[in-house]
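**Paired protein data**
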Amino acid sequence: MHPRVSRALKALIVVLLALLLASQILVIPEVARITALRNPDVVQLEVPGIIGAVLFIGLVEVTLVCVWFLLSLVQTDRIFRVEAFRYVDIILGALVAAGVLILAAYLVIVANRAVSLTLSLLAILGIVVSAALALLVVVLRGLLRKALELEQDLSEVV
């Protein structure tokens, strides 16, 4: 990977992390407050909604940090090392946790009779996307493992 591409991607990760953090601190509480004011029948979901949204964005932030470390391994030509699996496994765990969090949030919303067709479709979409991404990471993890094995075999030959 060209060093400029890695630096550009790392710069974008920094910007994304800053925007996500600002969203956690400023946007989510305000949106929850406004939603609770406009819909007094779901005011009891304001705090759980804030917690769920902040946790979800936290999982995205963890994933971005792991991508940062994987990029660093690529830059130093150490991506085919056992340490790379730690970051891939964390990304996989974050994706699974995101899917579980979406499902849990949806069940809370259903239990409070605040569900709508749009919300149901978004929940299903979120769960399917997180499952698909998790499966993609599993495939990529397998490719990384195979590449590591091939590199080790090649180093023994040389």
